[in-house]
Amino acid sequence: MFKKKIVFTGGGTAGHVTPNIAIIKEMDRSKWDIHYIGSKKGIEKDLITQINIPYYGISSGKLRRYIDFENVKDIFRVLKGCLQARRILKKLKPNLIFSKGGFVSVPVIIAAKSLKIPIFIHESDMTPGLANKISQRFATKIFTSFAETKKYFPEQKTMVIGSPIRKEILNGSWEKGRDFLDFNTYQPILTIMGGSLGSKKVNEAVRSSLNQLIGKYQIVHLCGKGNIDNKLLNIPGYKQFEYINDELPDILAATDIVITRGGSNAIFEFLALKIPMIIIPLTKQQSRGDQILNAKAFEDKGYSLTLEEENLTNDSLVSSLDFVMSKKEKYQTAMSTSEQGNALQVLVDEINKYL
């Protein structure tokens, strides 16, 4: 049977990769030949090779909004990436490109447009990232997580669908989660997720507050690669992990409250699971401000509490946790009224329908 061919792209952080993985897992492999183009050393390479998808690494530059000598070098890196991506695409001859953004996607999309290959992109955040701002002019169809995002794109080719949620995230086991962590059944579980790269400021605030938190909560701290604190390895009720993959659905099923950055994919997953959130968004000095807008949108809808990093102290962290836990049912009621649709199935259907 002749298979249709699709190339996925996106990378830089897990947030640009996990939605692609969710879509890939829902596609019929008997009908689709699936490939992935990412950066040579990005997190996407490890995540994609784990699911046995052919992976092609290309040169990519970082898209900056400020003046830096590295920008000059990156122009050449992007040009090199365009040539490499074009060579790969000419060989593969895919029927469609699907992009989740991140700087590595830009050379792939430019190359695809030059070869007249149709392009789908998905924007997770309230405002589009620079990669998708560039890519939108080449896109055949654009999908967004937030209704508010549609105004930034051409209306006739933009569709609001929500965020594609990994199916396995929704099927965790409360019992397996507590067994894996070796936690008791009577104290609430607090999970801290600082993103795939971790967060130095959040990690420091959590660790300096442990004396106030332990006793109230059992704590799962996903602190990012290289961020384990060996001095805290044997504290009862406190478990550190660089990154969790297979056990994450079970851990989240057992979680009562979560501290998270404001990345769209993560907060939409917590919304689907109805886990009350404290969102500590990246500051405007660290990002383009997208996480601040994501956090505000969720707080306005009653799904979460925002704690600005500039205001993050031991006392503000502990008091915010106490407040959200005291209003846990109110947050969960608001989450249950969310109109978050089945974005994952919509995307799979749109891919199949287009071809």
**Percentage beta strand:** 15-25%
Name the CATH superfamily classification of the largest domain: Glycogen Phosphorylase B
Helical amount: 25-40%
**Helical run tally:** 14
| Element string (H = helix, E = strand) | EHEHEHEHEHEEHEHHEEHEHEHEHHH
Oligomer: single chain
* CATH architecture term of the largest domain: 3-Layer(aba) Sandwich
Lateral arrangement of strands in the main beta sheet: 3-2-1-4-5-6-7
Q: Give the N-to-C terminal Cα separation.
A: 16 Å
Kindly state the number of beta strands.
13
CATH class of the largest domain: Alpha Beta
Radius of gyration: 21 Å
CATH fold-level name of the largest domain: Rossmann fold
Low-pLDDT stretches: none
Q: How many independent structural domains?
A: 2
Mean pLDDT: 91
Describe this structure in words.
The chain is of the alpha/beta class. The chain folds into 2 domains: 4-163 and 341-354, Rossmann fold (3-Layer(aba) Sandwich); 168-336, 3-Layer(aba) Sandwich (Rossmann fold), CATH 3.40.50.2000. 39% of the residues lie in helices and 16% in strands. The chain contains 14 helices and 13 strands. The strands form 2 sheets. The chain has a 7-stranded parallel sheet with strand order 3-2-1-4-5-6-7, with helices on both faces. The radius of gyration is 21 Å and the shape is globular. It starts with a strand and ends with a helix. The model has no long low-confidence stretch (mean pLDDT 91).
Q: Secondary-structure map with pairings?
A:
Blueprint: E1 4-9, H1 18-26, E2 32-39, H2 43-49, E3 55-58, H3 70-92, E4 96-99, H4 105-114, E5 119-123, H5 130-135, E6 141-144, E7 158-160, H6 174-181, E8 189-193, H7 200-208, H8 210-213, E9 218-222, E10 238-241, H9 248-254, E11 257-260, H10 264-273, E12 277-279, H11 290-300, E13 304-306, H12 314-326, H13 328-336, H14 343-354
Parallel strand pairs: 1-2, 1-4, 2-3, 4-5, 5-6, 6-7, 8-9, 8-11, 9-10, 11-12, 12-13
Helix pairs in contact: 1-14, 3-4, 6-9
